[in-house]
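Field: sequence (string)
Field: structure_tokens (string)

Example rows 1 and 2, in order.
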Amino acid sequence: MSKLYEKLDLLIITAVSRGNRNPRRDLDVFAEAQRIANTTRQYTMRVIDGRLTALRKSGAIHYLHKSDAPDGKVGWYVVSTGQPA
């Protein structure tokens, strides 16, 4: 993980673990993504989408449809590591 995205990745995982199934709407996530977007000349939502993809590919989070979700809600979920927090 790049140093540039460390804080954003942590904010996304925190938002998802708090039950925010769409971290794009989290104000802290958006503010950090906007800061990165301004320095890299990208669109804010592209930055967030890119980090969601990177976190999904690394196995930190996954997207579940209504039929697969434990609470019946579509969205992003943190992957359980099986270790107590």
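Row 2 begins here:
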Amino acid sequence: MVRLVREATAMDAAALGHVHVECWRQAYSHVLSAEFLARLDPVARGEQWQRFLSQPRPEHTLRVLEVDGEIRGFAMSGPSVEDPPVRDIQLYSIYQFASEHSTGSGQLLLDAVIGDAPAELWVAEDNPRAIAFYRRNGFTLDGTQKNEPDWENLSEVRMVR
């Protein structure tokens, strides 16, 4: 298998929509209701990605993971949206199909969007696999927690390095 991490383009929008929704379904099926996950629309999400990718955003870094030419994951970072920011850079998202776990793809994505820079991120509190991955990359829990009202009050914790 040939794994490649590259910059996302507007041509990737539909695939990003599919990957985004499918990854949510795979990653959060144990914490979000089946009804909530069924309502996620990959076409609508792809349209959101199309709007995002159609405007220059030099302050953001968005990379896709291709495996044998198929997009199977993505990661995005940019300026912190926290007020006040804990770090200048925030990892907004890193998603990949479960079939990519333990292949090194997650590391490739993380390295492509933040490298070893000091950064902050939010992760589902009930996602031990992701928390362990971030710990291996120097992140620590800082004791801050929030609930996402648009995500059935999903509990998230902040990690920093």
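free_text_note (row 2): The chain is about 30% helix and 30% strand.
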